[in-house]
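quick one, two chains, predict together pls
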Amino acid sequence: MDLLPQVFSDALLLAGLYTLMAVGLSLGFGVLRIINFAQGEMIMLGAYGAFWGLTLLGVDPIISLPVLVVAGFALGWLIFRGFVAKVLDAPHINQILLTFGLALAIQHIAIILWSGNARSATTAYATESAFVGDVLVVYSRLIAFAIATIMVVALIAWLRWSETGRATRAVAENRAAAALMGIDVDRIYAMSFGVSCALSVATGVVVSFILTITPFMGFPMLIKSIAIVILGGLGSIAGTVIGAFVLAFSETFVSYYVPDGAGWAEGIAFLLIIGILILRPRGILGQTVET
Amino acid sequence: MRKALCLGTSGLLIAAALSFAAEAQETFKIGAPVSISGRYVAYGVQGKNGIEMAVDVWKKVRGDKVAGRTIEVLFRDTQSNNAITVSLMNNFILTDKVNVIIGPDGSNVAAAAVPPWKKIEDRPIWLLPGGSSDVIEKEVGPDPYFFHTYAWSYYYHESNLKALKALVGPNKKVALIYSDGAYGRAHIDDARHYIKEAGYEIVSDELVREGSADFNPTLAKIRARRPDILYVLVQTNDAIQLTKQIQASRLNVPYLIGTAQAQLPEWQNAVGESQSCWTGVTTWVPGLSYPADKNEPKLFPSAADWEKAWMEKFKAVPEFLEVGYYASTILTLLAVEATKSTDREVLKKWLEEQHYQTPLGDSKFIKSRVALHQTFGEMVVFQRQKKADGTFEGVLIYPEQIATGKLKPCTY
């Protein structure tokens, strides 16, 4: 059997998931110039939200997605106003320590509230699939891909065509000039941080029926997201999409075609990222970063 | 006058010191490192419950003391953390001066507990009712004061392959999946050994990354090899995702074989319907038919009576570590009661010679590959099967003399 169509299908579906996972971080950095180390914990909170919605209320994760995204936005807004806004002009190390501390606090609260037990949302479509020719398509991954595509397209549309989105891009390009043009920079910052958290919560909802949910699930996702964002170019949404595709395709190809490849896939994919960054230090579509 | 006052005060202080010393001597201290927070919390809670139940039963049957000594159990939380476990072991031995250590639970923290315990010359007796990794066994070596009261990892594969040979017959093709973490690495060599010894052919031997986001490439390769048996060696977090992906992947493999995860409520709850048809191997499942001990029927009742008593107390079905910790604690108390001593040489000799019928089976210690004292390693194989009411149960399928049902091939 020719595995190539299956390889492309698996890689494409994984790339969708990776894009959604990293795009929030990319937006947050592009506008605020802060790497939010609590982004992984937002994914975790989204996954728990979807899990408890299904377990306690019987609400399917796809149905609870809009509510959780709004809740994620509100939480992000509050975190920005309560914490992040205080360190916007502080040295990078302070910003890193703050968001890292927030991540640890959220993780420990999750352990206290829900214990360290592993969970997963057991929807009917989580284990259903169909053969399209020789290619097996797993419904849960297809749904995740569809949601990721809708969310990312909506984000790009918002940034490109809405007034607030254009203001956000203006702030990302030049904060001082945007302020002189009458844009409320603080409001844009809070909104961008809220949107980036909402996107991470959406990722959590999507992975709730695919991956295992634990209070510790956020950190490995954060690391992968940072790698994707750096590969694509810090602050570039289009670059993040490309970075996610490069990582997903390289991981999947290695898993299929290298002996014991599934064990080595991440390692080899990260070597590839290092290679690309040596050739192009700004990443694929990177912009110059103001410091 | 001042001289008399000084003498009086000194006398009082000496008397108080002596009384404290006497009290200290009259206490039997059990050090219990348990993971009651962090990622092994499910194991740690089982360990704590098991010890508490044992002490409660002892007090009801024999009174509040053991050989005239007050029973004191020092529960300390490992926080599922290796560094904290090392510190706890040092404190138990050097500061608390415990007479016996029972625990900790998971293989990782148990392995971390070995070096601090080993390095101290006058270390106390150590009973380990959890921790299956044979790395622990190799680290401890043939130590006279170490008593392992659970199965080693290779027992899992020996039992699984005995069951498969008896129930599905010879000449089968096996696909193996193992993780690159401590669990997979600890199990893979023994799994391969017993699979080959059973005369089975390994047609696929797949390494997967712990915490991987996608197991589909591995499963697609396995589907192409059309194995009869899928043998999975990953820890619980990965097992949850993998189990769901296996069902979605339509592998069409008749026998899905796991090790420890299938007995864990954590895995069962997280995978839902996907648990159907998976087999697991364990030292304990509800419904075992071990009889009561003839000499100590109140401390070691039949497995059925013990299970009933447990359910009355905790309103839940007992888990495998709960019964292991119970039996280990009762054995320790019996040792002190019988010998009227807390001296480790005396306790060691008694433990080596004792022989009871417990709710977890025969308690006689035998030598394992490396360790000098091993018991409760007898394993049973079960399959998760759906009942008429839509819930799942673990049906005992091997050994055949205690089986409560038959192995059914998977239909997905």
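The CA atoms of residues 251 and 269 of chain A lie 6 Å apart.
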